[in-house]
């Protein structure tokens, strides 16, 4: 005959495991919220002995906690460019067009901040900002000429 575990202890163990997993594998507090909701359902299981209903309540509570928790998490903005601000063009960049630059040892798609400037190949440029996976650049000799 198989041993049957009390639902209260099942929820406590599940909550502890999920909270511990959040420490090992961070998931922006998703596992933590699942674990906390399991702890709450452990006490609810003392009042409501029907296990399928406990599972449904756990899922509803977990989704609510994740939704509410995300509202208080800081928003991820664009990652700031680190270290170097200099790059070198790998391809010529036509006015208003895109090209490739070598930045921090990697090839990046780039676009000139001034849509009327042409940047030749192998030109030293400065990285002003990043928009998605595109670097916004300006040639070093054009920075003094900007209004």
Indicate the topology:
Blueprint: H1 7-24, H2 30-44, H3 51-72, E1 86-89, E2 98-103, E3 106-112, E4 124-131, E5 134-139
Parallel strand pairs: 3-5
Antiparallel strand pairs: 1-2, 1-4, 2-3, 4-5
Helix pairs in contact: 1-2, 2-3
How would you describe what is shown here?
It is a multi-pass membrane protein. The chain crosses the membrane at residues 7-30, 36-69. Keywords: Membrane, Transmembrane, Transmembrane helix. Its main location: membrane. It is found in: Membrane. By secondary structure, this protein is of the alpha+beta class. The protein folds into two domains: 7-72, no CATH class; 86-142, Beta Barrel (OB fold (Dihydrolipoamide Acetyltransferase, E2P)). The chain contains three helices and five strands. It has helices at 7-24, 30-44, 51-72, and strands at residues 86-89, 98-103, 106-112, 124-131, 134-139. The protein has a five-stranded mixed barrel. α1 runs antiparallel to α2 and α2 (30-44) crosses α3 (51-72). It is rod-shaped. The termini are far apart. The mean pLDDT is 86.
State the separation between the terminal residues, measured CA to CA.
Answer: 84 Å
SSE pattern, N- to C-terminal: HHHEEEEE
Number of strands: 5
List the total number of helices.
3
The neighbouring-strand order within the major sheet is 1-2-3-5-4
Any idea what the shape is? rod-shaped
As a whole number of angstroms, the C-alpha radius of gyration is 27 Å
Structural class label? alpha+beta
Q: Domains counted in the coordinates: how many?
A: 2
InterPro entries: Membrane_assoc_protease, NA-bd_OB-fold, NfeD-like_C
Domain NfeD-like C-terminal: 87-139
Pfam families: NfeD
Organism: Candidatus Synechococcus calcipolaris G9
């Amino acid at each position: 005959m198989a041993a049957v575990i009390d639902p209260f202890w099942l929820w406590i163990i599940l909550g502890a495991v999920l909270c511990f997993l959040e420490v090992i594998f961070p998931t922006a507090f998703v596992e933590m919220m699942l674990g906390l909701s399991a702890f709450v359902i452990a006490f609810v299981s003392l009042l409501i002995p029907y296990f399928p209903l406990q599972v449904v309540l756990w899922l509803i509570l977990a989704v609510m906690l994740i939704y509410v928790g995300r509202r208080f998490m800081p928003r991820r903005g664009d990652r700031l460019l680190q270290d170097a601000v200099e790059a070198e063009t790998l391809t010529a960049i036509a006015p208003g067009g895109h090209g490739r630059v070598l930045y921090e040892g990697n090839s990046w798609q780039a676009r000139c901040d001034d849509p009327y400037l042409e940047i030749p190949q192998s030109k030293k440029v400065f990285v002003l900002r990043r928009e998605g996976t595109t670097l916004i650049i300006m040639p070093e000799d054009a920075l003094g000429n900007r209004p």
